[in-house]
Fold these 2 entries.
Entry 1:
Amino acid sequence: MTIRVLSVASEAVPLVKTGGLADVAGALPAAVAPHGVEMTTFLPGYPAVMKALSRPRALHTWDNLLGEKARLVGGKIDGHPLLALDAPAFFQRDGNPYVDSSGRDWADNWRRFAAFGRAAADVGGCMVKGREFDLVHAHDWQAAMALAYLRFSPPDGGKRVPSVMTIHNMAFQGHYGADVFPALGLPPHAWAMDGVEYHGGVGFLKAGLEAASMITTVSPTYAREIRTAQFGMGLEGLIVSRADRVIGIVNGIDTVQWNPATDIQLPQAYGQLSLGKRVANKRALEAEFGLEASDGPLFIAVTRLTWQKGIDVLLECIDHLVGTGGRLALLGSGDKAMENAFDAAAMRHPGKVGVRIGYDEGLSHRMQGGGDAILVPSRFEPCGLTQLYGLAYGCVPVVARTGGLADTVIDANLAAVMGGVATGVQFDGVNYASLADAISRTVTLYWQRDTWRAMQRAGMKTDFSWNRSGRAYADLYAALIAEDQ
Ligand code: ADP
Ligand code: GLC
């Protein structure tokens, strides 16, 4: 029997992406399909989403969805069913799904994503005729209220369904003042410590975590880390109290989009047995970043420029990196002060450091295909995808030992190198000394050409497809549905 899942997310490739959540929400339907799951993705009707739906027909209408009119419309996303919440007052805005053009959160984000949650609960709770679901899977705080509505205010005439809440990033929780509670349309008893109340206000992610049948996060190590104050960001107590309901399932990557043998973004395609061809990509990348051509190590970084990513520490290490004979190409955007600081570093090291501020999917592929090593010095990293792309492309990851980075990269210690299983470099603690040391180790390994080749090959051989994790999600859905009956 096919299991029908409603996956509720605020972004999904190829329609809308600000980070890894979109990659994962976009990949999940195909990942679980071979395991008997039909996944429907539910997205807010942003301009890009509505544009992708040709002449959408209303499947349901709301006259008053947290104060606004809304319609449910349907279509396809990469061949899988898509539903969108067409609510122009909430989602027909230019720019980013979460922030305005000056980078500030939209002031009504609580209402926008509560409305999205309310609608998702109605749809997932089977209020819409002809659209039946067996389980609701919500991603991050923007979708979390769906589970609170299902718990405290299920749709009339609907059906009870089990739920999964996935944490892609504990740093974003959706906290609002107590004053928004009355407008949410929840019954008074939802205002409780094990409900939506959080430190005197409303916590969206918190509400979802309390309501979910099962909590997942995107790597086993992060699932353990969030039980501690350092990583739990205030929700560690809740995670500990529900520990028997928390598991980590590591993300896969889209191996069609990310395959160096067929990637149309690359000047030169290559595979494990033709790594020598990568040099053409390296030359092209150097030219693209205005770097001098050299056989020395070329480090890359593709990242949001935020505290999470340890990018400030990378900035401190730039002189050291250049001192070891390395060069750096960085693509990123985010914090304005960090953007300026990287531009300044590029001016200081002409030919050695190249910086591109912005978001550029194609360039991110060319960097993985031409760079020698990718730096990921994150302070915390629920899973991380760029190190996985690095592994697939023979761009050796240099990562902090945390979250999914710890779970997916095998450090080149002596035993791992001797055993031929090393795939990258890990370091403990995100600070100048540890990152500088990791960069030095990487440069040493780079010049041991046979060892380096073996590391590249071991990385490329690793299975980071969705096969295993797709099955893990499908098994979880089946178990929760069985438990509920
Ligand atoms: P996070 O979701 O925390 O930002 P991930 O590593 O899970 O981290 O995912 C980031 C995704 O966004 C990857 O697909 C990465 O290639 C992409 N990415 C990040 N910054 C940029 C950028 N400036 N240009 C292009 N792609 C980027
Ligand atoms: C978040 C995390 C990242 C993870 C991604 C997809 O944005 O920061 O580590 O890979 O979600 O799960």
Entry 2:
Amino acid sequence: MPRIITVGAAQLGPIQRAEPREVAVARMIRLLERAQIRGVEFVVFPELALTTFFPRHYLECLEDADPWFEQSMPNDDTAALFATAKRFGIGFHLGFAERAQEPDESGVVRTRRFNSSILVSGKGDIVLKYRKVHLPGHAEFDSKRQVQHLEKRYFEPGNLGFPVIRAPMGNLSGLNMGMLICNDRRWPEAWRVLGLQGVEMVALGYNTPSTNQAAAGFEAPHLRVFHSHLSIQSGAYQNATFAVAAAKAGVEDGCELFGHSIIVNPQGEILAQATSWDDELVVADCNLEQCALGRTTIFAFDKHRRPDAYQRITQQVGAVEPHVWAPEEK
Ligand code: CDT
């Protein structure tokens, strides 16, 4: 019996700062309705899907940002989304800002803020939570930037690792699923940790500006899209997994997000791609048997990986300059 699941990347157009959650949730419900008509069993919504991408806004006091955060999930604002998905039997992925009261590394219970995502089964159960590990940007207002990127101000790095769960999804009694959030997709280590748990489908939400302000050089907008796709396609290929990547797109609070949501197969091929900067559902049938080729041949990890040679990956953070060759070493 082939293991096939029909999935959707539910791209969202912009959500402006003044727009309340109920507007975003109503739009997501409309996408779920379209998903149901098209036979979709699992829908991926973007990173921070309920609000504007607020890390572009500087607030002096962290507590003033609390209205952008969720203290529980589901909650009054998202109950209708959960109920609709459950009524249709559609599983989903949702990215949101999480505010939790929990112990830190020293055991002190305090308010903690994370850029989080969850996987929800078609029965409405939350089967997995992930907290974004790679937080881009900066913690303080940067007067040199036209647009701030304050993820390091508003969030702590995720403390759940990169978990994978085998859970029922759609018609499948078990599917190995994991999550990455936006900037995580650019880090091969993150994909490999998922790959080492036999992941078959990676759900990924993102908000990526069309332009990157960097003193070190210019990155053209088409290369921004290329680098996003390159990262997702190579991550899927090198770990023999499907990836469903859903973006927020369009001009949000005056800042352009490039969209280009995609669904990728384990060969690294794009199966479906968004073409608008609006709410858009792109759909693909994913035959999970296609994960077998990579994981039994070129990426048969148990046969070919050499972790002894990878020690720098876990022992070192920044790059270390190499030994300088001298003529006497001839
Ligand atoms: N949301 C997110 O992680 N965006 C980053 C852009 C960072 S630009 C400072 C990304 O990697 O897409």
